[in-house]
């Protein structure tokens, strides 16, 4: 159903491009990306679940990161794939708000989860003797609950703000998904308050995790510089390298998209930025953590050996 103050009952998603010759190649390209995303994240989830040596706080959070990546990629990609093979990619108003809600929920949750993972690395490197006490199962569950509460509250505010807008005759949504900025562009009433809400919430949802990550890694770097052995420094750096890469990819593309006014960042460029953190980052995360993580590679090899021997 449409909002009570809106005459629009459905939106037409323009998709990634209107060039017909690119539709089929892009369909197979992003279908491949999606398959890698699903298989990679589900494989990492199964690997962590099946190997007791990975039942540690670090991999508990990585388990949830893969779960979030799988879910929010699934929220976006199937609808985008449809736009490549259909003449009109129509999404109902209620479906659009639902997609927006789950997209915001998973993206905000990932933002705070990455900051929790940075804190976990800080405790592991700077306070190794009390690591298992500080990051007890109860503390990990409490931190994870905080992550999902922030995701839920942010998604509710964003979705409520967009649902309150009035949409009149124009229902052509210049995007491949129901995102906040393209929906603001379609509104036929003033969006000043809504844009202010978006800016404040995104500043919180990106700013707070980035500050936490920055402080954690500043303390980690200080601790590493006090390690005298080259081997010890190398091990400490390798422990954090995967997380630093993932954080840079995720927050870099997210900040580029949402922390600039729409007048500075055209929607076509916004599509590319959105594409990066909704499609590419969830695909790369399990690959980064698998290829750059010794424990994951060892556990994968042992799991494969057990399967082959059985």
Structural features, described:
Residues 40-289 form the G-protein coupled receptors family 1 profile domain. Putative odorant or sperm cell receptor. It is a multi-pass membrane protein. With 310 residues, the chain is mainly alpha-helical. Helix content is 76%, strand content 3%. It contains ten helices and three strands, in the order βααβαααβααααα. Strands 2-1-3 form a three-stranded mixed sheet. α2 (57-85) runs antiparallel to α3. The mean pLDDT is 85.
- Kindly state the percentage of residues in helix: over 70%
What is the overall number of helices? 10
Give the helices and strands as they follow along the chain.
EHHEHHHEHHHHH
Helix and strand composition category: mainly alpha
Strand content: under 5%
Rg from Cα: 21 Å
| Overall number of structural domains | 1
Distance between the termini: 54 Å
In one word, what is the shape?
globular
Identify the quaternary structure here.
Answer: single chain
CATH names the topology as Rhopdopsin 7-helix transmembrane proteins
- The low-pLDDT segments are none
The neighbouring-strand order within the major sheet is 2-1-3
Q: What is the averaged pLDDT score?
A: 85
Largest sheet: 3 strands, mixed
CATH architecture grouping = Up-down Bundle
**How many distinct beta strands?**
3
Highest-level CATH class: Mainly Alpha
The name of the CATH superfamily reads: Rhodopsin 7-helix transmembrane proteins
Sum up the structure in keywords.
mainly alpha, globular, 310 residues
List the helices and strands and how they pair.
Elements: E1 10-13, H1 20-50, H2 57-85, E2 89-92, H3 93-126, H4 131-134, H5 137-163, E3 172-173, H6 180-186, H7 192-225, H8 230-258, H9 267-291, H10 294-309
Parallel strand pairs: 1-3
Antiparallel strand pairs: 1-2
């Amino acid at each position: 159903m449409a909002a009570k103050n809106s005459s629009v009952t459905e939106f037409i998603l323009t998709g990634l491009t209107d060039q017909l010759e690119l539709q089929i190649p892009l369909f197979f390209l992003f279908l491949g990306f999606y398959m890698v995303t699903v298989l990679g994240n589900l494989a990492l989830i199964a690997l962590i679940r099946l190997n007791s040596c990975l039942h540690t706080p670090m991999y508990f959070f990585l388990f949830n990161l893969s779960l979030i990546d799988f879910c929010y990629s699934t929220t976006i990609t199937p609808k985008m794939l449809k736009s490549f093979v259909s003449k009109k990619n129509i999404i109902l108003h209620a479906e659009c708000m639902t997609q927006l809600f789950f997209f915001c929920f998973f993206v905000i949750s990932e933002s705070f989860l990455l900051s929790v993972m940075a804190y976990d690395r800080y405790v592991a490197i700077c306070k190794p003797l009390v690591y298992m006490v500080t990051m007890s199962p109860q503390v990990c569950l409490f931190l994870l609950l905080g992550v999902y509460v922030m995701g839920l509250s942010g998604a509710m505010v964003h979705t409520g703000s967009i649902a309150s807008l009035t949409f009149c005759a124009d229902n052509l949504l210049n995007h491949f998904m129901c995102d906040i900025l393209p929906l603001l562009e379609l509104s036929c009433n003033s969006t000043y308050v809504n844009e202010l809400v978006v800016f404040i919430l995104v500043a919180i949802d990106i700013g707070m995790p980035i500050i936490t990550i920055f402080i954690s890694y500043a303390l980690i770097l200080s601790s590493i510089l006090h390690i005298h052995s080259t081997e010890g420094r190398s091990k400490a750096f390798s422990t954090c390298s995967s997380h630093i890469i993932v954080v840079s990819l995720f927050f870099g593309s997210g900040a580029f998209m949402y922390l600039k006014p729409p007048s500075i960042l055209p929607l076509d460029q916004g599509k590319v930025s959105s594409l990066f953190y909704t499609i590419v980052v969830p695909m790369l995360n399990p690959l980064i953590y698998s290829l750059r993580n010794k424990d994951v590679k060892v556990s994968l090899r042992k799991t494969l050996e057990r399967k082959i021997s059985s």
